[in-house]
Amino acid sequence: MGDHHHGPAQGISRWLFTTNHKDIGTMYLWFSFAMFLLGGFFAMVIRAELFQPGMQLVEPGFFNQMTTLHGLVMVFGAIMPSFVGLANWLIPMMIGAPDMALPRMNNWSFWILPPAFLMLASTLFMEGGAPAFGWTFYAPLSTTYAAPSVTFFIFAIHVLGVSSIMGSINIIATVMNMRAPGMTYMKMPLFVWTWLITAFLLVAVMPVLAGAVTMMLMDIHFGTSFFSAAGGGDPVLFQHIFWFFGHPEVYIIILPAFGVVSQIIPAFSRKPLFGYASMVYATASIAFLSFVVWAHHMYTVGMPIAGELFFMYATMLIAVPTGVKVFNWISTMWRGALSFETPMLFCIGFLILFTLGGFTGLMLSIAPADFQYHDTYFVVAHFHYVMVAGAVFSMTAAIYYWLPKWCGRMYNETMGKTHFWISFIGFNITFFPQHFVGLAGMPRRIPDYALQFADFNMMSSIGAFIYGASQLLFLYNVVATIVAGKSVSDEKVWDGAEGLEWTVPTPAPYHTFEEPPLVPKPVGTI
Amino acid sequence: MRKRVAGLILAFLSPMSVAQNQVNMSPGVTEIGADIFELHMLIMWICVVIGIAVFAVMFYSIYAHRKSKGHQAAQFHESTKVEVAWTVVPFLILIAMAVPATSTLLEVYDNDEAELDILITGYQWKWKYEYLDESGEPVAFFSNLATPQEEIYNTDQKGDNYLLEVDEPLVLPTNTKVRFLVTANDVIHSWWVPEIAVKRDAIPGFINEAWTRVPEEGIYRGQCTELCGAYHGFMPVEVHAVSRPEFDAWMAAKRGDLTGMTNG
Amino acid sequence: MSSSSSASARHEKYYVPESSSLAVRATIGLILSVFGAALVLNDMTYGSGDEPSASVWVLAVGLMFFTFTLASWFGTAIRENLKGMNSNQLHQSYVLGMFWFIFSEVMFFAAFFGALLYVRQFVGPWLAGEGDGGRMNGLLWPGFEFAWPPVTTPQEVVGGVDAQVIANNGAFVSQEKSMAPADAHAWYAWLPMWNTLILLSSSATVHVAHTAILADRRREFNRWLGITVGLAVIFLGLQAAEYYEAYVLYGLTLNSGIYGSTFFMLTGFHGFHVAMGMTMLLIQLVRSVRREHFTATDHFGFEASSWYWHFVDVVWVFLFLFVYIL
Ligand code: HEA
Ligand code: HEA
Ligand code: CUA
Ligand SMILES: [Cu+2]
Q: If exposure means fewest CB atoms within 10 Å of the residue's CB, which of A138, A323, C126, C176 is most exposed?
C-alpha cells in the first residue's frame, strides 16, 4: 500500500498526472477564469460594436460568431467548470473524505476540457468562420446553413459533455459513498447537497444534448431528416431536445451558486442557516420542476395551446421553491450579528440582483407577455441578472471566502470591497438599461440597431467596460494574495464559519482526512 | 455625443414619455396589445411590491443587526409555520397572475373567422407577403430593407427610420380580422411588430397562425426576432394600416403591376 | 502508516491512486479521435473528394491511441484489485460509477426515442393537416398523407427529390417499404422477432453465468458467458442482414426521410452498444479462461459488464416495441 504522506510532485508533471482533488480543483478554477476572460473579451467586442448605431468594428457575420462564442464559452467554459473546481476543492473537505471517489477519472474530466475549447476557439480561423448560430444553435441554421466548422463545434460539445458526465458521476459517487461516519445526508453542508442534485441533473441532461448534436451531425453529413420538414422531421424538434437539456442547464448553473450562498450568509450572520431541511427540499423541487418547463423558451414556435398553458403553469411554479430559498436566506440574516466582508457583500449583491433576475424570469414565464419579450434584450437582461449577478457573483464570493483556507494567505480587504462596489455598479449600468431597450423593442443578436435605442446601448457598453475592468482588479487581488498575502494560520479563518473544512490546518494540507474525522455537531441541529 | 449624454439625462428625468429612450413596453394599438400590456404591468407591479417587501426586511436587518453595532446573534433556525406560509402565499399570488394570463392567451390563439389571409414567408434576408383570400390575380411581393449601405457604414447621415424601413411595406385594411400564415423558406425567422403585438416564428415547412385587427391607420414597424444568419439584424417589417377603400384601391393597383409575376 | 485511531478501525483506508499519466494519454487519444473524425466528415461533405487526405490517419491514430490507453487503464485497475489495494468502499465507488454511467446512456437513448415519439405523434399528423396542422398541408405539402411507417416523405409528394432545396431527401425503391411485421415476407423471416428472442435469452444466459460465478463454478461460468457472447455475435449478424434488407432490397436508407433517420439511428446506436457490451463480456471471458480471474466474492468486471448487457437488452425491448411493432 502506498504511503500517502507526501507532498505534490514537482514541475509540470504534478499538474498533468495529478490525482489530487485540490490540484484538480485548482486547475479547474484557473481554467474557468481564463475562459471567463476569453468570454468576457468576446462580450467586450459585442459591446464595442453596439456602442453606437451603425457598423463600426466588425462585420455582421463576425458579430454573430462573437455572440455565439461568448455564450458558449461563458456557460460551458467559465461557469460550469468553475463550480466543478469548487466542488473538487470543497466536497471532500466538507464531508470528511480523503479525496474524490474516482481520482484518475477526475483528472481526465479536467484534461479533456482545454483541448476541447482549443478546438472550439480554432473554428474562428477556419474557412467560413466560427459557429454563428447562437449558443442555442437552432436547426436548420446550425445544420444545412452552417459553416463547415460546425462539425468541430459538434465534437467539442460531445467532449464537454463527456467531461461533465464524468465529473458529475464522480461527485455523486463521492457524496454517496465517501462521507465520514456520522455525516448523514441531512447533516451535509448545503453546498454538498446542491452539488449532489446538480450532478443528477447533469447526468440526466448532458446525454440528451449529446443526442441533439448527434442528430445535427447526421443531418449535416448523412442526409437524415430529423430537423427538416421535407423529410418528415421538424426544426422545432431540435428546440424541444435542446431545451430539455437547456433549461435544466440554467439550474445546473445556479444551484451550486445557491449552495455557496447558503454557506457564506450564515458565516457572516454568525447564525445557523435558517430552514436547512426546507432548503434541501426546495433545491430538489427546483431540480424536479426544471425537467418539465423547457418549452417556455419556445412560446412563439406555435405550440398547441394546451402545451403553452402547461409549460406556463409549470414554469411559474418554480418561483415557489426559489422564493423559499430567498426567504430562508433573509431569515438567516434576520437578528444575526452581521458583518460585511467581501464574500458577504457579494452574497448580498447576489441576493438582490438574483431576485430581480428571478422576477423578470417570472414575467417571461407568462406566455402572452413573452410574445412581446421573447428574443429581445429583456431576455438578455434577465439572464445576465441570474447568471452574472447570480452565478458569477456567488463564485466570486466563494473565491474570497475560501481562498485564505486554500493558500493560507488573506486577500486585501479594501481591494476586495472596491472590487465589489465597482462590479455592483458596473453590472447594473450594463444590464439594467437592457430591460428598457428590450421592452422598447430591440431584438437580441443584432449587430446594429434603430436610433431610438442608441443612448441606453451606449450606457450599457460603458457599464460593460467598467465591469470588465473590475475583473482585472479581482485577478490582481487573487494573484497578489497567493504570492504575497498576509499569512493566516487559524483553522477557522472566519469566526462564524462552520463545517469540516474549517477544522483542518490553514493552508489546507495536500492530503486531508486520510483518517475519517469525527463529525462535529453540524450546522442546523441544536 | 454631447447630445447623446443630454438624452441620457433626459431619459431619467422623463421616463415613459418620449419615444426616444422609451423604457417600457408599448401598449400598441390593438386590443390584444393592450391586454398584454396590462398583464405586463400587473406582473411587474406584483414583483415590485414583493421585491420591496423582501428587500425592506433585508435592509432593516443589515442596518439593525450589524455586529459593528454590537448586535448579538440569535440562534433560531427553523419554523415550520413560516415555511408553510411563504410557500402558500406566493402560490396564491401565482394563481392570481395565471388567471388573466390564461384568458389573454386564449384570445391570442383565437385564429378563427379571419376576413383576410396573408401568407408571410421568411427568406434570408427579406420577407415575402402573399394575399391569399382575394379573388382574382394573386398578389405577392418581397419586402426588403430600404436603408442604404452608406447609412449603415456611417458615411451618410442616418434617417429617422434607420433599419426599420422597407422598399415595399405590407398593407393591411383597418378594422379587419387579418390572419397571418407564417412560414419560412430557409431557416427559422420570426415576424414581429410590437405595436400590433404579433410575434410568430416562421418555421420552414410549417405554417404558424397569428392574427390581428388594427383599429387605427398608421405605420407600424418591427423586425425579425429569430437569429437567421448574418443579416438577421437587417430584415425589418413595415406595416401600413389603411382604410378599407384605400386598401381596395391599393390592391387593384397592385394587381395591375403584378400580372404575370411568378414567385421569385 | 500513522497509528490507527478508532476511526480507521471502523473504516478501511480508501485507495487514492498515485499520480498517473493515464488521464493525459486518454485525453490525447480522445481529442485526436474527435478531431480526426471531424476532418474526415468535412472532407466527405465539403471536400472535393479527389485529394488523398491525412484526415483518416489522424482518426486512425487517435482511435488506436485511445483504445490502447483504455486497455491499459482497465488493466491497471484490474492489477490494483488483484494486489488487494481496493477496499470495499472503492468497490462501492465503482458500482456507483457504473450505475450512473448506464443511467447517462439511458438518457442518450431517451433523446432518440423522444424524437421518434414526437415525430410520430405530432409532426407527421401536422404535416398532413390534422389538428393543429391547419393550413400547412394545403399550402406547403398538398397531397401528403401521414402513416406510420410512412410510405412517402412530404417532399416526395410535392415533387420528388430535387424539387426543393429545403432538405436532404431520398425515396424508397421497393414495394415493401418498411421494417414492420406487416411488410415481412413471412413471420419466420421477420428478423427483429428472432433478434428479440436472441437478446432476451442472452440476458438469461449471462444471468446463469452470474449465478455460476457466485457459486465459484468456473467452468460453468465460462460456458454460459461464452454462450452469451455467441448470442451477441448472432444478434449482430442478423442485424447486418436486416440492414442489408433495408438498404439494398427496400431502398430504405438514412436519406429516406424521418423513417429512415429514426430507424437507423435507434437501431444503429443500439447495435453499436451491443458491440461494446459484447466486447466487454468477451474481455471478461478471456480474463476468466486465460487468467482465472474472478471469484465468488470478487468479480466486479464481469458484474459491471453484465449490467451493461441487461441495459442493452432493455433498450432493445423498447426498440422492438416502438420501432418495429407500434
Ligand atoms: C442561472 C440561470 C437562470 C435562472 C436561475 C433562471 C431562472 C428563471 N428563468 Fe430564465 N433564462 C436563463 C437563465 C436562467 N433563468 C437563460 C440563459 C435564458 C435565455 C436562454 C437563451 O434564449 O439564450 C433564460 C430565458 C428564460 C425564459 C425564455 C424567455 C424567452 O426567450 O422568451 C423564460 C420564460 O419563461 C425564463 C424564465 C425563468 C424563470 C421563471 C426562472 C425562475 O427560476 C426564477 C425564480 C425566482 C424568483 C421568482 C425570484 C425569487 C422569488 C421570490 C422572492 C418569491 C416570491 C415571488 C413571486 C411569487 C413572484 N427564463
Ligand atoms: C454565465 C454566463 C455569462 C456571463 C458571465 C456573461 C457576461 C457578459 N455578457 Fe453575456 N451572454 C451569455 C452568458 C453570459 N454573459 C449568453 C448565454 C448569451 C446569449 C448568447 C446568444 O445569444 O447565443 C449572452 C449574450 C450577451 C449579449 C447579447 C449579445 C447579442 O444578443 O448579440 C451581450 C450584450 O451586451 C452580453 C454582454 C455581456 C457582458 C458585458 C458580460 C460581462 O459580465 C463580461 C465581463 C467580463 C470581462 C469583460 C472579462 C474580464 C476583462 C478582460 C478580458 C479585460 C478586457 C476588458 C477591458 C479592458 C474593459 N452577453
Ligand atoms: Cu430573419 Cu432573423
Ligand atoms: Cu428556461
A: C176
